[in-house]
Amino acid sequence: MELTELEYVGFWARVGAALIDSMLLLLIVIPLMMIFYDGTAYWEDMRLIKGSVGLLVEWILPVIAVFAFWLIKQATPGKMAVAARIVDAKTGNKPSTGQFIIRYLGYYVAMLPLFIGIIWVAFDRRKQGWHDKLAGTVVIRPKQHGPDAVRFSQSQ
Q1: pTM of model > 0.70
Q2: Tens digits of residue pLDDT in 101-138
Q3: pLDDT tier for residue 38 given thresholds of 50, 70 and 90
């Protein structure tokens, strides 16, 4: 696909993708946790990490799912729903595993100061959040209406 046929994915499309991903994870995590906690006991437990099952199902499973989708498809189901994919910001190629790790950890950095690093996507010319900037990635999709054509510093 030609670069002029691509656009950076903006804030609201990415919010929509995140909502889709969150809903899908909830559809998996909540039933599993209710099975292990005998139904309503899950809702009564206010701990952040609800034992080893909670650690596995609520924390580790989502990380594995996100990485699996990123490594295989360069996108989570939510990003796929908006035709978006994550690419290396310099080359436009698939990011390295290291970039994906930095990107994931970068979400925490971006969220800590009142989500400013996530909101940054709305104002950045290349629609990069802090997690993208840290990892050297951009999120792109086939051009729909964006004003800026995608540019990479190295040829593909």
Answers
A1: yes
A2: 999 999 999 999 999 999 999 999 999 999 999 999 99
A3: confident
> Which H, E and C letters describe the chain, residue by residue?
CCHHHEEECCHHHHHHHHHHHHHHHHHHHHHHHHHHCCCCHHHHCCCCCCHHHHHHHHHHHHHHHHHHHHHHHCCCHHHHHCCCEEEECCCCCCCCHHHHHHHHHHHHHHHCCCCHHHHHHHCCCCCCCHHHHHHCEEEEEECCCCCCECCCCCCC
Rounded CA gap, 67 and 64, in Å? 5
Count CB-CB contacts under 10 A for residue 51.
12
Q: Give the tokens for residue 12.
A: 């609201």
| Alpha-carbon gap, residue 64 to 81, rounded angstroms | 20
